[in-house]
Amino acid sequence: MAILNLSSIGNLQRALDQTSLSQNVISQNIANIDTPNYKAKKVVFGDVLQSAMTANRTDPRHFEFSNSGQSQIVVDRNSSIQNNGNNVDADEQMTELAKTQLQYQSYTEAISREFNKLNIVLGGGQ
């Protein structure tokens, strides 16, 4: 196993970008919870992390990496629609927001560890 893997920093950056996009979409859904005829949106991810990182889930409670190349925002057409034509479920959106916040925190901690390794290799972490 290599002590320093610069590609992992790029992969983690993409994961942070995707998670941030997901948080923005969820926030828009929550902001439009009472907007008539608004349809909830969600982000569909690619296999950016799965193919680029060789992460192994050693515990079922660990985050699972998604499988596809590009992130894409899609309209959720499977949710039940309320009387005003809106299909945003507040509980579901808050749960997804909490989940993405935990993922974002996990990725920031991982990228911080990578930068700490880089700092040590470059002689700054004596």
UniProtKB/TrEMBL annotation:
Asked if rRNA-binding is a keyword of the record, the answer is no
Known Pfam families for this protein? Flg_bb_rod
Query: Any idea where the Flagellar basal body rod protein N-terminal domain is?
Result: 12-39
Record-level GO cellular component terms: bacterial-type flagellum basal body, rod
Where in or outside the cell it occurs: the entry states:
Bacterial flagellum basal body
Lineage top rank: taxon: Bacteria
Biological process (GO) annotations held by this record are: bacterial-type flagellum-dependent swarming motility
Quaternary structure (record): The basal body constitutes a major portion of the flagellar organelle and consists of a number of rings mounted on a central rod.
Q: What does the function comment of this entry state? A: Structural component of flagellum, the bacterial motility apparatus. Part of the rod structure of flagellar basal body.
Family statement drawn from the similarity comment of this UniProt entry = Belongs to the flagella basal body rod proteins family.
Q: Which PANTHER family match?
A: FLAGELLAR BASAL BODY ROD PROTEIN FLGB, FLAGELLAR PROTEIN
Q: What is this protein called?
A: Flagellar basal body rod protein FlgB
What organism does this protein naturally occur in? Pullulanibacillus pueri
What is the name of the gene encoding this protein? flgB
